[in-house]
Amino acid sequence: MEIRSVTFFVDPSRPLEALALAVDDARSAFAEIGHTPQTIRLATTPFPDWLDTPDRLVDLVTWCEGSGIDYLALGPVRLDDDGAYLSQLATILGTHEMVFSSAEVADTNGRIDTGRAAQIAALIRELAVLRPDGFANLFFAATANCPSGSPFFPIAYRGKATGPVRFSIATEAADLAVEAIRSARDLAEARALLVSAIEREAAVLVTAASGLASRHGYDFGGIDFSLAPFPEEARSVGTALEAIGIPAVGGHGTLFAAALVAECIDRARFPSCGFSGLMLPVLEDVTLARRATEGILTIGDLLLYSAVCGTGLDVVPLPGDVAQEELTGILLDVAALAVRLNKPLTARLMPLPGLAAGDPVVFDFAYFASSGVMETKRVGAAGLLSGRDRIVLAPR
């Protein structure tokens, strides 16, 4: 298991100088327990509340770079924010390589906005051509029913501006599932081993985090113990699911396997935050990437699995010419699942310029596996769905 990030949540209108000491302390405190954080991240209140000039962002980025912060999340464009802020994001994400952001398709009050879905779809297409490889969409996600406090990017943001700095931990822990399942004689033992492993590792993290919080007067917001993968067989969520008895992720039985593993996280006792679920990021997982290349794992499958475990659609490679209307429909599907099931979901979609379904996908990026462009339905939102409606769906 690794610590993917320690994320500090701040109000950028307040002084940040003291935070640099906590950043250094966080690296050393977790290193002492054998879990040096891969990254230290900063997440702010939603940027429409405070980003009044480009220079202000330049100053914040400069401060982060000089203070040991690896990545910065500016929070979401919310449903009630002016849509013009979406236009700003293309410029921001195209200018600052360490900056992430997001935008709501659905909020935590059950509101889904079809017009905003179309605007976000247009932004995704705009971001896709900022770089020849389509990589800019790594830094942006559409969100549905996502509260503040998740340490995972791009969706991390601080809610209320009042109160002390808060920090949370995001794990990269798919290897725990692989080890537990491969060691088990039956499903019950696999579950018991995985729950025990999560609780054991969480207890160590909590001890270090509590000391860090106490020393700096900060709040510890908990652990997002999502079983995030790394593109190696032994650190793959897909490998864990197939070890349960699925010949290939995407085949029948995968839904059960995914639900079983996700339920282990629910059973484990630890201070949780964010998703704390099963992440299925296609390009970050060597087994998922392979099954997508083979056409066994589809976008529809990923949506289905999100109903019982997942975080939505994450780093999904799409044809470069995917239509705005089709992206809109995908975003509305994610929003409907999130609101009706009352769970946070996101969509980080990556149209890849010049590539078609089935074409190979190769990035020079340590966190991505080689894969293939996933096929879409080639039909999109039309009729009533193409309007600018805001509708509330009640959770079940």
Order of helices and strands: EHEHEHEEHEEHHEHHHHEHEEEE
Q: Low-confidence stretches at least 5 residues in length (pLDDT < 50)?
A: none
Number of domains: 1
Q: Helicity range of the residues?
A: 25-40%
Say how many strands there are: 13
The spatial strand order of the largest sheet comes to: 8-7-1-2-3-4-6-10-9
In whole angstroms, the N-to-C terminal distance is 35 Å
CATH topology (level 3) name: Anaerobic Ribonucleotide-triphosphate Reductase Large Chain
- Content-based structural category: alpha/beta
CATH architecture: Alpha-Beta Barrel
Shape: globular
Number of helical runs? 11
CATH class: Alpha Beta
Radius of gyration: 20 Å
Global mean pLDDT? 96
Q: What is the strand content?
A: 15-25%
What does the main sheet amount to? Answer: 9 strands, mixed
